Amino acid sequence: MTRAYAAALALALAGRAGDDAPVKSKVAELGPVRAWVELAPAQPRLSDQPKLTLVVDAEEGVVVLKPPFGDAFSGFAIRDFKDALPATKDGRRIVKQEYTLEPAASGRHVILPIPIRFKDGRPNGDALEHVLETEALAVEVTSVVGAELPDLGALAQGEGPVAVPWQMPAWLVATIGGALALAAGVAGYVVWRRGRVPPKPLSSMEIAQRELDLLLERDGARRLDVKSFYVELTAIVRRHVERTTGVHAPEQTTPEFLRAIQGHPAFDELRRERLRAFLEAADLVKFAGFEPDRAAIDASVERAREFIRLFAPRPAEPALAGAPA
Fold this sequence. Notes:
With about 325 residues, this protein is of the alpha+beta class. The protein is built from 7 helices and 12 strands. Helix content is about 40%, strand content about 20%. A hairpin with an 8-residue loop joins strand 10 and strand 11. Helix 4 packs antiparallel against helix 6 and helix 6 crosses helix 7. It starts with a helix and ends in a 15-residue tail after the last helix. The C terminus is likely disordered.
């Protein structure tokens, strides 16, 4: 890399570093509590470590419980966490949690809704526990340098290549020939083994991921309407749940399914709540004629991927020495 190119690249990256404008999700509100998420910069690059801030604004007397949302950052790794001190403004209590993230890949990602539990302890409150979810936030992660890459054609041309006479030694020729013969033998053996050994059957998670990829490919080609898309999306999740937990999910209605998983050891409170929200949101599209926007569709797809991971079968634990078979 020439000095001129390095200087131009440094200027491009320096200009990027000053662009830290945040993007904010829609404000979600339930009774005395409002919540939203902010991400800065608004369009992070693969080399950035963007800051995600969860803001909860509640009236005095409302007890806000810290949300368990480690799985809300699909496509990002958590590098740091800061729990800011609460502040009070105009009779309302403001709580912030700040995360330092690292993008795993460029492209479109969705910050999934974050569930926030609170108890209304105001004098006129109902003293019950409620759940508020933030709105999903779509994020576009770009490449490291992108359009700001300096034009190499504008740099001064260097000297042309100088031909150096060289002759390959005989020992190197023999070494390369032997390596090629060994590689050919290994490749032939692999092909022979593939013809004799049957392919390994796909796991339930692999089957669900392939079905989801095929659905997204058909949706990208505009072969499905929104209603048909949601019917197949929920069917993929239900079939995967049945294969991994034994709960007969595909032919049940949403209320029947939710009753069936009540008390089941594979469904903790967080999984039941997320499945309920996912299936009821899909029912609005399938049966009530609701038309979701692109961000809502992307959030539903990310939740389906999340359920495929959550209900992946765990590896069997090794048997203890001396234990009966």
